[in-house]
Amino acid sequence: MSLFLIAALPFLGAVFPALLIRAGRNACSSAAGAVTLLALVGVLLHAPEVFRGETVTARAPWLPQLGMNANFFMDGLGFFFATMILGIGLLIIIYARHYLSREDPMGNFYTYLLLFQGAMVGIVLSDNILLLVVFWELTSLSSFLLIGYWRHLPAGRQGARMALAVTGGGGLALIGGMLLLGHAAGSYDLTTILERKDQIQASPLYVPALILILLGCFTKSAQFPFHFWLPHAMAAPTPVSAYLHSATMVKAGLFLMARLWPVLSGTDIWFYIVASIGMITMVLGAVIALFKDDLKALLAFSTVSHLGLITLLLGLGTEEAAMAAVFHIMNHATFKAALFMTAGIVDHEAHTRDIKRLGGLRVLMPVTFVLATVASLSMAGIPPLNGFLSKELMLDAAAHTIWNGSEWLFPVLATVGALFSAAYSFRYVVHTFLGPVRDDYPHKPHDPGIGMWLSPAILVLLVVAIGLFPEALAGEIVRTVTDAVIGGHGHYHELKIWHGVNTALIMSGIATVGGLILLALHRPLDVAWLAAPRPEAKVIFDACIGALIRAARAVTDTLHDGALSRYAAIFTLFTVGLGVYAFSTGEIGEATRPMNRIEVLPLIVWFCLIGATACVVAFHRYRVIALVIMAIIGLVVTLGFNYFSAPDLALTQLSVEVVTIILLLLALNFMPKRTPIESSPGRRLRDAVLSIGAGVGVGLLLYAILTRDFAFPSISEYHLANSYKGGGGHNVVNVILVDFRGFDTFGEIIVLGIAAVVIFALTEAILRTSVRAKLLNRKPDWPVAGDSHPLMMVVVTRLMMPVALMVAAYIFFRGHNEPGGGFIAGLIAAIAIVMQYMASGFSWAAARQHFPYHGIIGSGVLVAAVTGMGAWLNDKPFLTSDYGYIHIPGLEKFEWATAALFDVGVFLAVVGAVLLALESLSRYAWRPNTDSPYPMDINPARDDPRGGRED
Amino acid sequence: MEILVATAVGLLTSAGIYLILRQRTFPVILGISLISYAVNIFLFASGRLVVGLPPILRDEAVAYTDPLPQALALTAIVISFGMTALIVMIALSAYLSDNDDRIDMDDVSDLQDNDA
Question: Where are the extended beta strands (E) located within A836-951?
Fold first, then answer.
């Protein structure tokens, strides 16, 4: 099976549980199990190649420019982890089916679980470190969903947030580390990186990369001082804990350390950081675990301790230690998953997991007792179980380690860790299952059905079998995996139980006996422990997060206080500052362009503009006056465009001016006509200084541009040269719009359409609220004209309508060769129709308007799109235009370009958008019972001009 | 002529920014319209100012003005109408709903209430 498929299967399969939950809980869990089984079979099919020492690969370039490729590979290590993730995943899926109650949304559970599983498989199979980081982040996110699965429990939500904050923060560090590593190695492909040990370790980036990567690994694998999130994640349902904390999530950090072992390890800094942190974590976790009364908390800290053990082994940097690490990863996954599941069974049956309320379950739950005992003894390191074997290897490795010149420090600490480990393992069995049967369990416990104990039973079988026949069952795979970890062929001892009486055995014996003694002394020790002051990680974490949130809120509240005009002022100041900086530090060339001579007429028009602009500011409190003066500015701008050889712009500006002023007048109808004086003189002075500064800057910049030639050759020459040859039009501006840059124009008509539809939607929403009643009861603040639809105006506008539409058509058709085109024609047509609204009233016009304006906008966009797609028929890219000559008898021959069809789309979109905006606005003014049944309000042929009587 | 255009654009920008810094919606809308004029002219003028050479291909013409900024400014003018219409509607709706056309929110609690 291709690695692509293996990595994708859990993600694809995640859909099924969510859908199949409607078909029942069995269908849901079976689907999840089937997907996992399929992926597992896919992995196992590659076993022969992997055991031959070959690497299975699947590669696809994704963003090769960034070194980011969807490359997957599977060697011994990847195979081992993928098998473990999918195999234990399968057991968890079976177990969870029986563990979850009817109230729990099972579809969600399996979907999250499969997403998480997919992310984990992705991590262990990635051959590209950036891809690996992507999957790494996905595990943080999906584990967040899993840990917070019981979202009604505050502890669950807090635990999930804490896990996300810690592992997500570590993930950020990891991204940085991976980027540095890839930079140092010159490649982001793992297989390449793994061959460049010397280059990487010689690089100055080695230490920062190492520290950042280790931060990622330590947070994920709950190493001291980041160990605190793991126990809080125990608020998750037990199947989640069993999965995340035995075989997957927390092993991701170990996996990455093992994966990068060949290039990162072997240096002093690696040894001192990794081995020391591992040792601290191992001892600390074991000590705390002994004093936890919650079964899952005990197991959580024991997990922390065992993760520390494996980290320690990886940190030692020798081949034997690496092999011990691999072996312990396997053994820990088997006994710890089984232990979590037995803890879940106890919780499920007795309704408590508080050790102090348990005891005597041996009689009531014999099956669970056997499973838990065997797994616990393996955790304690009692022969002949698999935990014993890997613990011996660890003790042996520690016994030969010299730490900073001290020969005894590591052996002693390792023995202490093993001792506490034995003690809490014994306690798990003794205090839960042994002792007298009690009569005060919250719920009468008994063994559950086979569905719940089958999964731990399979694992316990492995625990015993590997313990008894290590070489036959695990020897081959452990050596293959270790070869992959160290990136070569190592020389290892055989795995066997009896090595003779050696240092490790003596240390092991001390640990076991010491563990029993500690257990016997547990009660007084527990009292002393509880009385002793110790830092509570959650309190510290909450305080840190609280301080962060307060700081963030303080900054946000100060900057973001809701005063929009303040933001605008800050923005202006900042922009002007940037401009000043650019002006003062940059260089400016000589003024090379000859000036145009100042003529009299333009000078007069310029004075008009200056005067009008000054008046708008001076009279802006008198809104109607300001609006009228605005129209003057628009007119001057139009004249300016016309003067400076831009007839198309002049036409556009003129028609836009008309609709804009109508729009603003309509809006002003409902708004106050005056603006009160509110800002203080000081504030007005500040605004004046700011705005004058900005204006001077813009003016200077424009003057500097206008007096200089282009710094680089312009692309305009190309447009001028090809407008006729390629686009078939003489009006270059129009050809650019509908042809050269047709895609821009296409986007712009869509934007315009969206704006109009938003206006429509806003009107709909507003008119459904109490605003409607307010509008109907509104008293006009100005006297209303006596005749709302004057006869003269009605007659004239109706006569004008066909003429105006004719002009629009003329402007449209000549647009390709003369000034004009779809934009301008659309505006003119819209004005022709708006005139009818204004003269004859909304009701009259609306009654005669048969096509909704949204439809017109949509059809415009559609016409433009279809025209563009027409090019595909000729195997040309979207919006390639074509043109030819058409002969119609009786007319001269003329050219017709497909771009004209595109221009029809522009025309329709503009008409629709302008009218939809104005129509929406005029609906505010509509009142019921003002509709006249007659086409004209005044008709001398009728007796009563107001239509009070029928004809 | 260049100095006239540059001063006009500078003045339009100044007036526009001053009005945008006012506290009521209507002056702000006027200010945005003024800024739109300024920006459109700026964009257009970046093709340099030429008198009497429209970009319409003619056999007898010797030179043309730069057509590209014109095409860009043309769509910008139409789009700025769409934008003006939208903010006018937003301002009007806000005024009609709350009987208030101030643009500054009084205090942060308004914001937080909306967030919640």
Answer: 883-886, 894-897
With CB atoms and an 8 Å threshold, state whether B84 touches A663: yes
Pair B77, A652: CB distance under 8 Å: yes
A642 shares contact with chain B (CB less than 8 Å): no
User: Which of 1.10.540, 1.10.10, 1.20.120, 1.10.287 would CATH assign to domain B2-55+62-107?
Assistant: 1.10.287
A673 touching B (Cβ < 8 Å): no
List the beta strands (DSSP E) in A371-529: none
**Inter-chain Cβ pairs, chain A and chain B, closer than 8 A:** 323
Residues A759 and B84: their CA atoms lie apart, in Å, by 11
Q: Which two tokens stand for residue A150?
A: 């019981």
Which of chain A's residues have a Cβ under 8 Å away from the Cβ of B105? Answer: 561-564
> Sign of torsion, CA B92 B94 B96 B101?
negative
Contacts of B17 in chain A (CB under 8 A): 568, 572, 687, 690-691, 694-695
Helices (H) then strands (E): counts for chain A: 43, 6
Domain ranges of chain B: 2-55+62-107
Chain B interface includes A615 (CB < 8 A): no
Interchain CB contact of A637 with B (< 8 Å)? yes
- CA A795 from centre of chain: 60
Rounded to two decimals, the ipTM of the complex is 0.92
Interface test with B, best of A558, A706, A762, A769 (most B CBs within 10 A): A706
Q: Label residue A949 by pLDDT band (50, 70, 90).
A: very low
Tokens of A230: 């793991």
E strands, A8-165, are 56-58, 61-63, 68-69, 72-74
- What one-character-per-residue DSSP string does A825-845 give? HHHHHHHHHHHHHHHH-HHHH
Contact list, B113 vs chain A (CB under 8 Å): none
Task: Give the tokens for residue B99.
Answer: 């009987």
User: What does the pLDDT look like over A249-284, one tens digit per residue?
Assistant: 889 999 999 999 999 988 889 999 999 999 999 999
Say yes or no: A736 contacts chain B, CB-CB below 8 A: yes
Residues A96/A27, Cβ–Cβ less than 8 Å: no
Q: Considering CB atoms only, which of B16, B37, B92 is closest to A667?
A: B92
For residue A715, the SS3 value is coil
Which residues pair with residue B111 across a beta bridge?
A: none
Q: Cβ contact (<8 Å) for A675 and B95?
A: no
Question: What does the domain layout of chain A look like in residue ranges?
Answer: 733-938
Contact present, A518 and A413 (Cβ < 8 Å): no
Cα A43 to Cα A60: distance, rounded to the nearest angstrom? 19
A281-313 pLDDT per residue, tens: 999 999 999 988 889 999 999 999 999 999 999
The tokens for A454 are 């089958």
Compare all CA atoms of chain B with the CA of A609 and give the residue at the minimum distance.
Answer: B8
Q: Which residue of B has its CA nearest to A910?
A: B78
